[in-house]
From TrEMBL:
<dbReference type="InterPro" id="IPR000305">
    <property type="entry name" value="GIY-YIG_endonuc"/>
</dbReference>
<feature type="domain" description="GIY-YIG">
    <location>
        <begin position="2"/>
        <end position="78"/>
    </location>
</feature>
<dbReference type="Pfam" id="PF01541">
    <property type="entry name" value="GIY-YIG"/>
</dbReference>
<dbReference type="InterPro" id="IPR035901">
    <property type="entry name" value="GIY-YIG_endonuc_sf"/>
</dbReference>
<protein>
    <submittedName>
        <fullName>GIY-YIG nuclease family protein</fullName>
    </submittedName>
</protein>
<comment type="similarity">
    <text>Belongs to the UPF0213 family.</text>
</comment>
<dbReference type="InterPro" id="IPR050190">
    <property type="entry name" value="UPF0213_domain"/>
</dbReference>
Length: 83
């Protein structure tokens, strides 16, 4: 079975980044390595994975990602603190 992850990173500037991937370890390595200079996280490293959820359906993971991206910082922090 294939899994998909929606995740939240805490950036060095104290901002949050929300993303979705099918390989969380690989994606974290890409973020930490600064694979693309145009990415939001490039100048905000080091990053810390503070929350994630595993899904079996990519559509569900994308839906959750979009929902979280629309949230306020306060609501994201509340989600992270529930962990």
């Amino acid at each position: 079975m294939k899994f998909y992850f929606t995740y939240i990173l805490l950036c060095v500037d104290n901002s949050y980044y929300t993303g979705m991937t099918n390989d969380l370890d690989r994606r974290m390595t890409e973020h930490q390595g600064g694979k693309k200079k145009s990415c939001y996280t490039y100048k905000k490293r080091p990053l810390k994975l503070v929350w994630y959820i595993q899904c079996t359906n990519p559509s569900e993971a994308i839906k959750i990602e979009k929902q979280i991206k629309g949230w306020t910082r306060r609501k994201k922090k509340a989600l992270i603190d529930e962990k």
